[in-house]
Amino acid sequence: MKFFRQWGRFMMMGAQAHARWEINTANTIWGDRKRMIILGLLTVPIILGGIAFAEQIAGALPDILGGKKAYSPSFYSTGIFVVSILIGLVAGLITGCIGAGGGFVIAPALMSAGIKGIMAVGTDLFHIFAKAIMGTVMHRKLGNVSVPLAVVFLIGAVIGATAGGMINRILYEINPVLSDAFITTIYSVMLGSLGIYALLDYLRARHAEKKPVTTLGGGGAHTRDEGAEMGNLPKRIQSLKLPPMIKFDADLTPGGRSISWVFLVLSGGLVGMAAGIMGVGGGFLTFPIFVYMLGVSSMTTVGTDIFQIVFTAGYASISQYAVHGFIFYTLAMGMLLGSLLGIQIGAMVTKVVKGITIRGFYAMAVLAGFINRIFALPGKLAEMEVIPLSQQTASILDAIGVYAFFIVIGGFGIWVIGTFVKNIGVLKGKEVLT
After folding, report:
1. How far apart are CA 282 and CA 273, in angstroms?
2. Cβ count near 236 (within 10 Å)
3. SS3 string of the chain?
4. pTM
5. Which of 26, 121, 200, 360 is the most core-located residue (most Cβ within 10 A)?
6. pLDDT in tens, 208-251
7. What is the pLDDT of residues 265-319, one digit of tens each?
8. Residue 88: how many other CB atoms lie within 10 Å
9. Residues whose CB is less than 8 angstroms from the CB of residue 422 and which lie 6 or more positions away in sequence, other chains included
10. Backbone phi, then psi, for 249, in 5-degree steps?
């Protein structure tokens, strides 16, 4: 039970850290007219060219790969672009309103809309890379980054992203259904653990008289300040002197700290592999790993996280997915546009809604994603003849998961937008609840 709570807290810290990056990036793009003009100029040709390209190559793609149908009709459907905007919008609303990982619902949502898992992951990665390039102001955000720390970490991240991308592609070539089942299982475990922790956290908050340690809402995530202090695990890891040693945080602690390159490469490998397999940039793991396992200060961690997201997402999306044809550029741009708008609306809604309500919605959204993936898994296992299950039963289970997912996140989106519209006057006119 203690392990489960720690793992859930670990995941929550990562979700919040990734959301902070998403919010800051969106604000940077919205706050710069030149960036918005560039985004508009890039979006139109990519959308038009992507649709034309998809329709041209659709007939040249093999219908069967690994003994199973390789591609969905959505590969050349222009209507899916509208769905991608809505998916990005809801993900942005979750991120902006709740301050924790709305990007986690993107891949499950795309898969529910008919996109193969490997393409959902590749598209999600490219959308994150595009957002990072558009919104990250390197010279402003990386003042506290340790270059040696970041470079060694990226060595592992590149290796991990390569391995993750290769795993997805190999499984897809063996059997597209096996690839979907693998990605579905990974998301089921992640969303299940995060959703249960978020639900328990919400229930505890409702019954607790004192203020909880972790607070969601208010346009972002606020966690207990992690400065230069360390727990027992980071102290033990830093005590292992396996050369070469990488020094960091010299400006925050007397004499600075040092850690073996081995742990940085291993950590980068884990983050890179998560990015390569799941999408979401891997950034949701960097913060908890650096702060709670390696003992890096939160100030240095934030800079390094921004640094690694740009390069890890860029490398993984281009080298592991784009060159192999596993990215829908039109969908990526649709999600980018939707998420930028959703984050702004969500952040404003936090000013007129109590944090406890927001936390309840987050638990529901994540658990809906878990139900969506876990109900899709039996049909995929049955299609591979791993378990005995009729096609009718598998279709019913899958439909339950899809409807439950879109009803919950759709309802959440309608509630947030409705709350925003209802309170426009309040948001414009005076200081409100935070």
Report:
1. 8
2. 11
3. CHHHHHHHHHHHHHHHHHHHHHHHHHHHHHCCHHHHHHHHHHHHHHHHHHHHHHHHHHCCCCCEECCEECCCHHHHCCCHHHHHHHHHHHHHHHHHHHCCCHHHHHHHHHHHCCCCHHHHHHHHHHHHHHHHHHHCCHHHHCCCCCHHHHHHHHHHHHHHHHHHHHHHHHHHHHCHHHHHHHHHHHHHHHHHHHHHHHHHHHHHHHHCCCCCCCEEECCEEECCCCCCCCCHHHHHHHHCCCCCEEEECCCCCCCCEEEEHHHHHHHHHHHHHHHHHHCHHHHHHHHHHHHHHHCCCHHHHHHHHHHHHHHHHHHHHHHHHHHHCCCCHHHHHHHHHHHHHHHHHHHHHCCCCCHHHHHHHHHHHHHHHHHHHHHHHHHHHHHCCCCCCCHHHHHHHHHHHHHHHHHHHHHHHHHHHHHHHHCHHHHHHCCCCC
4. 0.83
5. 121
6. 745 544 444 444 444 444 444 567 888 888 888 888 888 887 77
7. 999 999 899 889 988 756 678 878 888 888 888 777 777 777 778 888 889 999 9
8. 29
9. none
10. 55, 30
Residue 379 identity: G
Q: Which structure tokens are listed for 285?
A: 């793991």
